[in-house]
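hey so u asked for the seq, here:
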Amino acid sequence: MIVKNMKEANETKIESFPYRGKPLKVKDVWIRWLSQAGPQDAPNTGFVFFTIGPKGVIPIHNHFYHQTMYILSGRLLVVSHDAKTDEKIEEKRWSP
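ran it, structure tokens below
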């Protein structure tokens, strides 16, 4: 397992994220992997520090690992979709 201090973790700007074979545009999002278990390119579990700019967007996507997110400041709208149809299931608003 890889574990890093946030100050030591590389911050990477995410420009796009693949979904169903197509790269979807990501807007104003940076990521730092703080802990990671499993292969580097496909971790099973991880703790990630996201920085999302005002009106930043992470498009519909899926992955094969668990994520833990803790909001330090700001607000977040999370939209869940049906895995087969992509139909919106629910929206949740989060804030610290």
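The first strand starts at residue 2 and ends at 3. The beta strands are 2-3, 12-19, 22-37, 45-57, 66-68, 76-81, 88-94.
lmk if thats what u needed
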